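User: I want to check something. If I give you two sequences, will you return the structure for each one separately, not as a complex?

Assistant: Yes, each is folded on its own. Here is the first sequence with its structure:
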Amino acid sequence: MEPGQIHMIDVTQKKETERQAVAECKVKLKRATLELIRRGRIAKGDVFAVAQTAGILAAKETPRLIPLCHPLLLTNVAIKFHIPESADFVEITATARGVGRTGFEMEALIAVSIAALNIYDMCKAVDRSMIIEGIHLVKKSGGKSGIYLVAEQSLGEGHC
């Protein structure tokens, strides 16, 4: 292959296996903004419902957004939100699963990223200082490489 050329990896010979990937990130917000979210007082509506829907839709569009990703048949995309007590952030976790010849890491990473961006969009009228941080793969399973779990020490400060 010539330098600068791109190509999709050929996965024809790989076996189809059940696969799963989990990604996380954090959206830091003002505590007043979190309180508005908790009380359902954001003008655009239910922040988490919109962010969850957007993340699921985005996971389905991954090969259109990441040019060299293979189209995969997702069997489930789940997005969860958690606001720890006395925190100034929302933790987002996205899980993508299916049966395929390659992993679902990009689907999980896209889902968590777009969910975070939708939280920003829903809340920007009251808090433009939000920070999206720590987007990372937490776990993947399936395929011949088996299970990958992120090492906590590899994340450093500010991880989810």
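And separately, the second sequence with its own structure:
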Amino acid sequence: MEGKVISLKGKELRKVELSDAVFGLPINEDVIWYAVNNELANARLGTASTKDRGEVHGTNRKPFAQKGGGRSRHGDLKSNIYVGGGISFGPKPRDFSYSLPRKEKQLSLKTILSLKVQDDLVSIIEDFSVESGKTKDLLAVLASVVDLKNPIRTVLILKDDDPMVKRAARNIPWLSYLTYNRLRAHDLFYARKVIMMEGASAKLNEFYAGEKKES
């Protein structure tokens, strides 16, 4: 399939080839679900912790006599039924992270890219850099493909690790930036607009489909 490249002034420049193996796959909802939930699980800190009755600070004496009071027997005031006592089956620090097979992870990213293309949410912009590293200069570039008065959740896919573009983008709350070889399923799936640099589209073809551009 083909995609049109837009200039920094919003005019169509040329067509580029988008690999069907990356941007033209059938939508697999299951693999998207697995990838998004995997990223959410890996981001969990897992630091929630409670104390059981053996860890609560307090006395070990019996609250009242075993017999003769007409009440049920109790061992100490650290029982979970007392205020200030231990917590039964409460959370303990744990690691929620797990890994997905590499092929499954790549399939999910390609499927999400295909979904965004089908929904006409992908724009390809000519390669650019922000030499000043200033947010206002990056916004001036994005104005050709994004309505800055009513911005929506947007992902910018970079062709390389450009530190100045990243510096300019980190102050924009509705914009996420991803390098072509380090995509995130969660950011891509929930984005309502995906902007790719022209160089990033070619590298995505090569990285995920193994198609090298002939010189």
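Because they were folded independently, the notes below concern the second chain alone. The domain at 2-34+101-209 is CATH 3.40.1370.10 (Ribosomal Protein L4; Chain: A;). The first helix runs from residue 20 to 23.
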